[in-house]
Write a structure and sequence with these properties.
mainly alpha; 9 helices; 72% helix
Length: 167
């Protein structure tokens, strides 16, 4: 299982693994130090990541103009989706990658709605943490940048922000 692989990497910390970025090995080491190496203890962390995803799904629905019903439905669908229930029950990089992606989407929507230059700092931190978790964050962030550059309407008003120092 991947969980044992991450626990083993947590015992041999390095910044240059051949097959994965290093952040989760450090998380596994710290978690193991605090709570032990039992499967129950190591599976708490992805469950917490899934719970935070439910919260951000509701926030994302609110930011996109949804009322309480839309927020509840969005959060409920994230909560009961079988694929996410399965992924958030095992300590791998997938729960943390999904959590990073939904937080990134939330930050992008906030940036589009109200351009505050400091929002770029949060975006940069989220992309950086995402890349240190799983390299697919590069594709996600690149696709979001292309979408913002190519989209008409409100997002096109924000294109000029790419020419500032904040990104």
């Amino acid at each position: 299982m991947d969980e044992f692989y991450w626990l083993a990497m947590g015992q041999h910390l390095d910044f240059g693994y051949v097959d994965v970025p290093p952040l989760l090995a450090y998380v596994a080491a710290a978690w193991r130090l605090l709570f032990g190496a039992s499967l129950f203890a190591i599976r708490i962390l992805p469950a917490l990541a899934g719970a935070v995803m439910v919260f951000f799904a509701g926030l994302l629905a609110r930011e996109m103009g949804g009322g309480r019903f839309a927020q509840s439905v969005a959060a409920l669908l994230v909560l009961v989706a079988p694929s996410w229930l399965a992924v958030n029950s095992v300590f791998t990089y997938d729960p943390f990658e999904q959590l990073g992606s939904i937080i990134l989407f939330y930050l992008i929507v906030r940036l589009i709605k109200e351009e505050t230059p400091r929002r770029w700092i949060g975006l940069g931190l989220m992309v950086g943490l995402g890349i240190m978790t799983k390299l697919t964050m590069i594709a996600t962030a690149g696709a979001l940048v292309l979408a913002l550059l190519a989209s008409p309407g409100l997002a096109s008003l924000r294109r000029k922000s790419f020419l500032t120092k904040w990104p």
